Amino acid sequence: MMLISETKDIxxxxxxxxxxxxxxxxxxxMITEGFILVDGKIVKPSYKLKENEEIKIDESFTKxxxxxxxxxxLEIVYxxxxxxxxxxQSGLVVHPGAxxxxxxxxxxxxxxxxxxxxxxxxxxxxxxxxxxxxxxxxMLVAKSDKAHIILAEDFKNKRIHRxxxxxxxxxxxxxxxxxxxxxxxxxxxxxxxxxxxxxxxARTHLTVxxxxxxxxxxxxxxxxxxxxxxxxxxxxxxxxxxxxxxxxQKKATEFGQFLHSEYLKFHHPITGExxxxxxxxxxxxxxxxxxxxxxxx
Length: 297
Known about the structure:
Distance between the termini: 59 Å
Shape: globular
CATH architecture of the largest domain: 2-Layer Sandwich
Helix content: 10-25%
Number of helices: 6
């Protein structure tokens, strides 16, 4: 659907709720997930329209509520009747969104099981937290609603311990660092995040694992879980994650950014048992490190 704005200084969510059959809540979700564009750009629901702006509405949003199972291979690290722990491969989007409705982790999950929590949006059954498309590693999934509610609270109250491994561009001058820099949506590009005064608090602990000639391998522990937090923080300190074209340099290989969720520790939401999981970095990541080792020696 295509509309041309006939007025100005009115919020887009309010304007479209009057001009279409969608509820304001649905319109907000569509805008946030990129299904509505203004002159080809993603905007906020609070964006105030100008006259004669082109509003493009991707009506396939309604199709995403009717999720289809996809036979995508999953590496299941742990599973019981309440939770799943997945080792997500790089390149896999977590949930359906604009332009990708059938080839996501959610589609793979509903192919694997009919038992996923129903807390939250219809397009995200079981999803308690996310990893970026090109970030690999451990992810928690809720199968029961009770588990979902408890895990969401545990994430909110920082009771779930996560550690990441990343290869950064350049050589860090120190062996440890603590980045405490607030993050908010980038004002120039709504698809990116940036360091902004007044943004949401974001804290990352960094420990150097290995220094190479032009790179640094680091371990990262998150205190908070903001969108793109590690990638934004690493770019902010001048050492972006290798192969991240959004916050760093141009893409050097076909593999995604060299960022892996390696370690996860939490109490089971139902039994209270302390669970710990660790996974190896992807083979492409390891192969590149092996190459660096050879040139380093």
